[in-house]
Amino acid sequence: MKIKDILAQKDVTLSFEVFPPKTSDKFDGVIKAAEEIAGLKPDFMSVTYGAGGGTSEYTADIARRIESDMGVTMLPHLTCVSSTREHVKKMIGIYKENGMENIMALRGDIPKDGTPAHDYHYATDLIADIKEGGDFCIGGACYPEGHPEAASRTEDMKNLKRKVDAGVDFLTTQMFFDNEEFFDFMYRVREADINVPVLAGIMPITNAKQMKRSIEMSGTKTPRRFLQIIDYFEDRPDALRDAGIIYATEQIIDLIAHGVKNIHVYSMNKPDVARDIQKNLTNII
Ligand code: FAD
Fold it and tell me: Which of 83, 109, 149, 284 is the most buried (most CB within 10 A)?
Protein backbone atom coordinates (compact mmCIF):
# COMPACT_ATOMS: atom_id res chain seq x y z
CA MET A 1 0.00 0.00 0.00
CA LYS A 2 1.17 3.54 -0.66
CA ILE A 3 2.18 5.37 2.50
CA LYS A 4 0.46 8.57 1.34
CA ASP A 5 -2.83 6.60 1.39
CA ILE A 6 -2.15 5.24 4.88
CA LEU A 7 -1.42 8.78 6.11
CA ALA A 8 -4.62 10.07 4.49
CA GLN A 9 -6.81 7.33 5.91
CA LYS A 10 -5.64 7.14 9.52
CA ASP A 11 -6.01 9.73 12.22
CA VAL A 12 -2.65 9.08 13.90
CA THR A 13 0.08 6.78 12.55
CA LEU A 14 3.00 5.09 14.26
CA SER A 15 5.84 3.63 12.19
CA PHE A 16 9.20 2.06 13.02
CA GLU A 17 12.63 1.96 11.39
CA VAL A 18 15.21 -0.80 11.12
CA PHE A 19 18.67 -0.75 9.60
CA PRO A 20 20.57 -3.44 7.68
CA PRO A 21 23.50 -5.36 9.19
CA LYS A 22 27.14 -4.57 8.47
CA THR A 23 28.01 -8.18 7.74
CA SER A 24 26.12 -11.25 6.51
CA ASP A 25 26.50 -13.12 9.82
CA LYS A 26 24.28 -10.47 11.45
CA PHE A 27 21.56 -10.74 8.80
CA ASP A 28 19.41 -13.32 10.62
CA GLY A 29 19.52 -11.26 13.80
CA VAL A 30 18.21 -8.22 11.94
CA ILE A 31 15.42 -10.29 10.35
CA LYS A 32 14.45 -11.62 13.78
CA ALA A 33 14.33 -8.10 15.23
CA ALA A 34 12.33 -6.90 12.20
CA GLU A 35 9.92 -9.80 12.67
CA GLU A 36 9.27 -8.82 16.27
CA ILE A 37 8.79 -5.17 15.32
CA ALA A 38 6.50 -6.16 12.43
CA GLY A 39 4.52 -8.26 14.92
CA LEU A 40 3.53 -5.00 16.63
CA LYS A 41 1.60 -4.16 13.44
CA PRO A 42 2.91 -0.64 12.90
CA ASP A 43 1.36 1.43 10.11
CA PHE A 44 4.54 0.86 8.10
CA MET A 45 8.23 0.20 8.58
CA SER A 46 11.27 1.73 6.93
CA VAL A 47 14.68 0.21 6.31
CA THR A 48 17.69 2.43 5.86
CA TYR A 49 20.19 2.27 3.03
CA GLY A 50 23.71 2.20 4.35
CA ALA A 51 23.03 4.41 7.39
CA GLY A 52 23.59 3.69 11.07
CA GLY A 53 26.59 1.48 10.44
CA GLY A 54 24.81 -1.01 8.17
CA THR A 55 25.43 -1.59 4.50
CA SER A 56 23.03 -0.99 1.63
CA GLU A 57 23.28 -4.40 -0.03
CA TYR A 58 20.71 -5.98 2.32
CA THR A 59 18.13 -3.18 2.23
CA ALA A 60 16.04 -4.53 -0.67
CA ASP A 61 15.94 -8.06 0.73
CA ILE A 62 14.99 -6.93 4.24
CA ALA A 63 12.22 -4.72 2.81
CA ARG A 64 10.89 -7.57 0.65
CA ARG A 65 10.82 -10.02 3.55
CA ILE A 66 9.06 -7.65 5.91
CA GLU A 67 6.43 -6.70 3.34
CA SER A 68 5.71 -10.09 1.78
CA ASP A 69 6.39 -12.47 4.70
CA MET A 70 5.40 -10.26 7.64
CA GLY A 71 2.64 -8.22 5.99
CA VAL A 72 3.80 -4.72 6.90
CA THR A 73 3.97 -1.94 4.28
CA MET A 74 7.61 -1.08 3.65
CA LEU A 75 9.56 2.05 2.92
CA PRO A 76 13.03 1.07 1.67
CA HIS A 77 15.46 3.99 1.60
CA LEU A 78 17.68 4.81 -1.37
CA THR A 79 20.61 7.22 -1.48
CA CYS A 80 22.25 8.64 -4.59
CA VAL A 81 25.30 10.82 -3.95
CA SER A 82 27.79 7.94 -3.82
CA SER A 83 26.11 5.98 -6.61
CA THR A 84 26.10 5.97 -10.36
CA ARG A 85 22.84 6.52 -12.22
CA GLU A 86 23.14 2.95 -13.49
CA HIS A 87 23.27 1.52 -9.97
CA VAL A 88 20.41 3.70 -8.74
CA LYS A 89 18.22 2.61 -11.66
CA LYS A 90 19.08 -1.01 -10.93
CA MET A 91 18.02 -0.58 -7.29
CA ILE A 92 14.73 1.07 -8.31
CA GLY A 93 14.12 -1.90 -10.63
CA ILE A 94 14.76 -4.35 -7.78
CA TYR A 95 12.39 -2.47 -5.46
CA LYS A 96 9.73 -2.58 -8.17
CA GLU A 97 10.23 -6.31 -8.84
CA ASN A 98 9.96 -6.93 -5.11
CA GLY A 99 6.55 -5.27 -5.08
CA MET A 100 7.59 -2.11 -3.23
CA GLU A 101 5.24 0.85 -3.63
CA ASN A 102 7.24 3.35 -1.57
CA ILE A 103 10.80 4.70 -1.70
CA MET A 104 12.52 7.16 0.63
CA ALA A 105 14.59 9.36 -1.70
CA LEU A 106 17.80 10.57 -0.04
CA ARG A 107 21.01 12.20 -1.04
CA GLY A 108 23.12 10.31 1.53
CA ASP A 109 26.11 11.74 3.31
CA ILE A 110 29.05 12.99 1.28
CA PRO A 111 31.75 10.34 1.79
CA LYS A 112 34.54 11.59 4.07
CA ASP A 113 37.22 9.47 2.43
CA GLY A 114 36.27 9.56 -1.21
CA THR A 115 34.56 11.62 -3.82
CA PRO A 116 30.90 11.43 -4.75
CA ALA A 117 30.12 9.65 -8.03
CA HIS A 118 28.97 12.94 -9.67
CA ASP A 119 25.76 11.62 -11.24
CA TYR A 120 23.68 13.16 -8.44
CA HIS A 121 24.13 16.20 -6.22
CA TYR A 122 20.89 16.34 -4.24
CA ALA A 123 17.99 14.09 -3.29
CA THR A 124 15.89 16.16 -5.70
CA ASP A 125 17.96 14.73 -8.60
CA LEU A 126 16.89 11.23 -7.59
CA ILE A 127 13.16 11.89 -7.72
CA ALA A 128 12.86 12.00 -11.51
CA ASP A 129 14.60 8.62 -11.78
CA ILE A 130 12.25 7.08 -9.20
CA LYS A 131 9.24 8.46 -11.06
CA GLU A 132 10.58 7.11 -14.32
CA GLY A 133 11.17 3.70 -12.69
CA GLY A 134 7.60 3.12 -11.53
CA ASP A 135 4.50 4.35 -9.77
CA PHE A 136 6.07 4.88 -6.34
CA CYS A 137 4.98 6.96 -3.38
CA ILE A 138 8.09 9.02 -2.55
CA GLY A 139 9.31 10.18 0.86
CA GLY A 140 11.99 12.80 1.55
CA ALA A 141 14.03 13.91 4.55
CA CYS A 142 13.78 17.25 6.32
CA TYR A 143 15.60 18.92 9.18
CA PRO A 144 13.74 20.94 11.83
CA GLU A 145 17.02 22.53 12.96
CA GLY A 146 18.26 22.97 9.38
CA HIS A 147 20.50 20.58 7.46
CA PRO A 148 24.07 20.90 8.83
CA GLU A 149 25.49 21.86 5.41
CA ALA A 150 22.87 24.49 4.59
CA ALA A 151 24.02 28.13 4.50
CA SER A 152 20.93 29.11 6.49
CA ARG A 153 17.57 27.69 7.50
CA THR A 154 15.94 29.96 4.93
CA GLU A 155 18.08 28.45 2.14
CA ASP A 156 17.39 24.97 3.45
CA MET A 157 13.64 25.65 3.36
CA LYS A 158 13.87 26.87 -0.25
CA ASN A 159 15.68 23.66 -1.16
CA LEU A 160 13.08 21.62 0.68
CA LYS A 161 10.34 23.32 -1.30
CA ARG A 162 12.21 22.43 -4.53
CA LYS A 163 12.42 18.81 -3.40
CA VAL A 164 8.71 18.60 -2.56
CA ASP A 165 7.77 20.28 -5.83
CA ALA A 166 9.86 17.68 -7.69
CA GLY A 167 7.39 15.04 -6.43
CA VAL A 168 7.81 14.14 -2.76
CA ASP A 169 4.58 12.80 -1.22
CA PHE A 170 5.59 13.09 2.43
CA LEU A 171 8.54 14.14 4.57
CA THR A 172 10.15 12.57 7.62
CA THR A 173 12.17 14.72 10.00
CA GLN A 174 15.60 14.19 11.35
CA MET A 175 15.42 13.28 15.04
CA PHE A 176 14.92 16.14 17.47
CA PHE A 177 14.77 16.21 21.25
CA ASP A 178 13.01 19.53 21.73
CA ASN A 179 9.46 19.65 20.35
CA GLU A 180 9.62 23.44 20.10
CA GLU A 181 12.11 22.95 17.24
CA PHE A 182 9.50 20.88 15.41
CA PHE A 183 6.64 23.30 16.05
CA ASP A 184 8.75 26.22 14.82
CA PHE A 185 9.80 24.20 11.77
CA MET A 186 6.19 23.29 10.93
CA TYR A 187 5.24 26.94 11.03
CA ARG A 188 8.01 27.70 8.52
CA VAL A 189 7.10 24.66 6.38
CA ARG A 190 3.51 25.83 5.96
CA GLU A 191 4.69 29.43 5.38
CA ALA A 192 6.83 28.07 2.54
CA ASP A 193 3.67 26.54 1.05
CA ILE A 194 4.85 22.98 1.61
CA ASN A 195 1.67 21.03 2.20
CA VAL A 196 2.64 17.36 2.24
CA PRO A 197 2.39 15.38 5.53
CA VAL A 198 5.46 15.72 7.78
CA LEU A 199 6.27 12.71 9.95
CA ALA A 200 7.96 13.58 13.24
CA GLY A 201 11.09 11.42 13.63
CA ILE A 202 11.63 10.38 17.23
CA MET A 203 14.79 8.65 18.40
CA PRO A 204 14.46 6.92 21.79
CA ILE A 205 17.92 7.17 23.32
CA THR A 206 18.61 3.99 25.22
CA ASN A 207 22.35 4.12 25.66
CA ALA A 208 24.86 6.92 26.06
CA LYS A 209 27.21 5.72 23.31
CA GLN A 210 24.37 5.61 20.78
CA MET A 211 23.29 9.10 21.79
CA LYS A 212 26.75 10.59 21.40
CA ARG A 213 27.16 8.98 17.97
CA SER A 214 23.70 10.00 16.74
CA ILE A 215 24.11 13.57 17.87
CA GLU A 216 27.59 13.81 16.42
CA MET A 217 26.26 12.62 13.04
CA SER A 218 23.16 14.78 12.95
CA GLY A 219 24.19 17.89 14.89
CA THR A 220 20.85 17.74 16.75
CA LYS A 221 20.57 20.09 19.75
CA THR A 222 20.34 18.47 23.16
CA PRO A 223 18.07 20.26 25.66
CA ARG A 224 19.47 20.64 29.18
CA ARG A 225 16.79 18.34 30.68
CA PHE A 226 17.72 15.62 28.19
CA LEU A 227 21.48 15.97 28.75
CA GLN A 228 20.95 15.75 32.48
CA ILE A 229 19.19 12.39 32.07
CA ILE A 230 22.02 11.02 29.94
CA ASP A 231 24.73 12.28 32.30
CA TYR A 232 23.01 11.08 35.45
CA PHE A 233 22.13 7.57 34.22
CA GLU A 234 25.12 7.02 31.91
CA ASP A 235 26.55 4.20 34.02
CA ARG A 236 23.21 2.51 34.72
CA PRO A 237 22.14 0.99 31.38
CA ASP A 238 18.70 -0.24 32.56
CA ALA A 239 17.85 3.12 34.10
CA LEU A 240 19.02 4.99 31.00
CA ARG A 241 17.01 2.71 28.71
CA ASP A 242 13.81 3.27 30.70
CA ALA A 243 14.45 7.00 30.98
CA GLY A 244 15.10 7.23 27.21
CA ILE A 245 11.83 5.44 26.43
CA ILE A 246 9.90 7.69 28.83
CA TYR A 247 11.51 10.82 27.33
CA ALA A 248 10.57 9.70 23.79
CA THR A 249 7.04 8.76 24.93
CA GLU A 250 6.57 12.20 26.50
CA GLN A 251 7.77 13.84 23.30
CA ILE A 252 5.26 11.80 21.27
CA ILE A 253 2.36 12.55 23.64
CA ASP A 254 3.15 16.27 23.49
CA LEU A 255 3.30 16.13 19.67
CA ILE A 256 -0.04 14.33 19.43
CA ALA A 257 -1.59 16.78 21.88
CA HIS A 258 -0.48 19.54 19.50
CA GLY A 259 -2.21 17.88 16.56
CA VAL A 260 0.80 16.11 15.05
CA LYS A 261 -0.60 13.07 13.30
CA ASN A 262 2.34 10.99 12.14
CA ILE A 263 5.11 9.65 14.34
CA HIS A 264 8.10 7.73 12.98
CA VAL A 265 10.21 6.03 15.64
CA TYR A 266 13.88 5.33 14.99
CA SER A 267 13.62 1.98 16.72
CA MET A 268 17.15 0.92 15.69
CA ASN A 269 16.50 -2.86 15.48
CA LYS A 270 15.32 -2.91 19.08
CA PRO A 271 11.95 -4.68 19.34
CA ASP A 272 11.75 -4.11 23.10
CA VAL A 273 12.04 -0.35 22.60
CA ALA A 274 9.38 -0.32 19.85
CA ARG A 275 7.11 -2.51 21.99
CA ASP A 276 7.44 -0.35 25.12
CA ILE A 277 6.76 2.86 23.22
CA GLN A 278 3.75 1.37 21.51
CA LYS A 279 2.47 0.03 24.85
CA ASN A 280 2.84 3.45 26.47
CA LEU A 281 0.64 4.86 23.69
CA THR A 282 -2.07 2.17 23.85
CA ASN A 283 -4.84 4.53 24.92
CA ILE A 284 -3.35 7.58 23.21
CA ILE A 285 -3.27 6.55 19.55
P1 FAD B 1 19.14 16.89 0.23
O2 FAD B 1 17.66 17.08 0.29
O3 FAD B 1 19.74 16.74 -1.11
O4 FAD B 1 19.81 18.13 1.00
C5 FAD B 1 21.21 18.11 1.30
C6 FAD B 1 21.75 19.52 1.40
O7 FAD B 1 21.76 20.13 0.10
C8 FAD B 1 20.92 20.45 2.28
O9 FAD B 1 21.80 21.31 2.94
C10 FAD B 1 20.05 21.20 1.29
O11 FAD B 1 19.67 22.49 1.78
C12 FAD B 1 21.00 21.32 0.10
N13 FAD B 1 20.30 21.36 -1.19
C14 FAD B 1 19.29 20.58 -1.60
N15 FAD B 1 18.91 20.91 -2.86
C16 FAD B 1 19.71 21.91 -3.25
C17 FAD B 1 19.84 22.67 -4.46
N18 FAD B 1 19.03 22.42 -5.49
N19 FAD B 1 20.79 23.64 -4.52
C20 FAD B 1 21.60 23.87 -3.46
N21 FAD B 1 21.54 23.18 -2.29
C22 FAD B 1 20.61 22.21 -2.21
N23 FAD B 1 21.47 8.45 5.04
C24 FAD B 1 21.82 7.26 4.49
O25 FAD B 1 22.97 7.09 4.05
N26 FAD B 1 20.91 6.23 4.41
C27 FAD B 1 19.65 6.34 4.88
O28 FAD B 1 18.87 5.38 4.81
C29 FAD B 1 19.25 7.58 5.47
N30 FAD B 1 18.00 7.77 5.94
C31 FAD B 1 17.62 9.00 6.42
C32 FAD B 1 16.29 9.21 6.83
C33 FAD B 1 15.90 10.46 7.33
C34 FAD B 1 14.47 10.67 7.76
C35 FAD B 1 16.85 11.51 7.45
C36 FAD B 1 16.43 12.82 8.04
C37 FAD B 1 18.16 11.31 7.04
C38 FAD B 1 18.56 10.08 6.51
N39 FAD B 1 19.85 9.86 6.06
C40 FAD B 1 20.22 8.64 5.53
C41 FAD B 1 20.87 10.91 6.17
C42 FAD B 1 20.90 11.79 4.88
O43 FAD B 1 21.36 11.04 3.80
C44 FAD B 1 21.83 12.98 5.19
O45 FAD B 1 21.28 13.80 6.18
C46 FAD B 1 22.27 13.78 3.97
O47 FAD B 1 23.33 14.64 4.42
C48 FAD B 1 21.20 14.64 3.34
O49 FAD B 1 20.26 13.91 2.69
P50 FAD B 1 18.94 14.60 2.09
O51 FAD B 1 18.23 13.57 1.30
O52 FAD B 1 18.21 15.31 3.15
O53 FAD B 1 19.64 15.65 1.09
Answer: 83
Beta bridge partners of 76: 47
Does the C-beta of 49 come closer than 6 Å to ligand 1? yes
pTM over 0.90: yes
Q: Are 92 and 63 in contact (CB under 8 A)?
A: no
Which run of H or E residues covers position 104? strand 102-106
Q: Is 145 one of the annotated active-site residues of the chain?
A: no
Q: What Cα–Cα distance (Å) separates residue 20 from each residue in 29, 83, 210, 236, 244?
A: 10, 18, 16, 28, 23
CA-closest candidate to residue 44, choices 1, 74, 67, 20: 74
pLDDT, tens digit, for every residue of 194-244? 999 999 999 999 888 878 777 787 888 989 999 899 889 999 999 999 999
